[in-house]
User: Which sequence fits this backbone?
């Protein structure tokens, strides 16, 4: 069941990227990097009208996957292969079912926003599932393996060069939009990934630790750490309960703590890095 859910998430993320690229990026000539950016630029250069951006994406992705399998071997994730091929095939299907030869609207900035949001949310879902849509990510991984270059810097440098090429192939307006989209997408992806990983950490100061811990362990299926403490102002003994939970569980926990101990002092913080049993492994 867990594997099925993972593939469903990867499928959703890949389709979001596909719609963002096909409906908004390619018709406007926006090239914010990656294989879709290369295909957008080459689609403008290659005079043969029979070669569509979708076909170029499929050809480039297949070549990069073969190179990745050769250089990266068994470490090359099957999820990336699945996502990359799904991206290529869905682009090809859209070109057949919904042919587009010009932008959907006459508002390029509006279309850039949708191109950024769809591709950024889709990429974030893939990264959250330990996958990617392939493409220039594969080149970055190979460079990391055989050089001292950092993957993030290498990927940004590659995508930057692809975006800059739109100044030459298209025009200055398209080039400026592409650069804006490249940097905006990076920030949106980081924000969405952090939001998907968001959890809550609690520090509960109470005189009823047993009942609260029982609820955390029995009902929430989590654990907690209990620390002896003394109130600085009152001098009374207290217990401090430290626990973490998913965001959706946080409301239930706060409500239950209030029911058990009205005088409890609760500190709740957002956190995106919880490593341990029940959450994430290193």
Assistant:
């Amino acid at each position: 069941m867990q594997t099925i859910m993972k593939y469903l998430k990867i499928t959703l993320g890949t389709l979001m990227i596909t719609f963002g690229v096909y409906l908004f990026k390619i018709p406007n000539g926006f090239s914010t990097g990656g294989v879709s950016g290369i295909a957008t630029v080459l689609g403008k250069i290659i005079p043969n009208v029979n070669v569509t951006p979708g076909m170029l994406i499929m050809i480039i992705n297949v070549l990069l996957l073969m190179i990745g399998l050769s250089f990266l071997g068994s470490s090359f994730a099957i999820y990336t292969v699945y996502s990359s091929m799904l991206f290529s095939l869905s682009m090809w299907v859209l070109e057949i079912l919904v042919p587009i030869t010009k932008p959907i609207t006459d508002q390029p900035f509006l279309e850039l926003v949708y191109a950024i949001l769809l591709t950024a949310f889709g990429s974030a879902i893939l990264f959250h599932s330990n996958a990617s849509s392939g493409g220039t990510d594969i080149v970055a991984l190979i460079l990391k393996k055989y050089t001292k270059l950092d993957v993030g810097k290498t990927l940004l440098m590659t995508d930057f060069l692809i975006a800059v090429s739109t100044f030459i192939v298209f025009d200055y307006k398209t080039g400026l939009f592409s650069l804006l989209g490249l940097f905006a997408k990076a920030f949106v992806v980081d924000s969405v990934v952090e939001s998907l990983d968001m959890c809550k950490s609690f520090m509960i100061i109470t005189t009823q630790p047993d009942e609260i811990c029982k609820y955390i362990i029995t009902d929430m299926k989590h654990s907690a750490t209990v620390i002896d403490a003394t109130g600085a102002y009152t001098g009374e003994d207290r217990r401090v309960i430290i626990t973490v939970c998913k965001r959706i569980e946080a409301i239930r926990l706060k409500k239950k703590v209030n029911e058990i101990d009205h005088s409890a002092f609760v500190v709740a913080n957002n956190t995106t890095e919880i490593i341990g049993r029940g959450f994430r492994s290193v």
User: Anything to note?
Assistant: The mean pLDDT is 82.
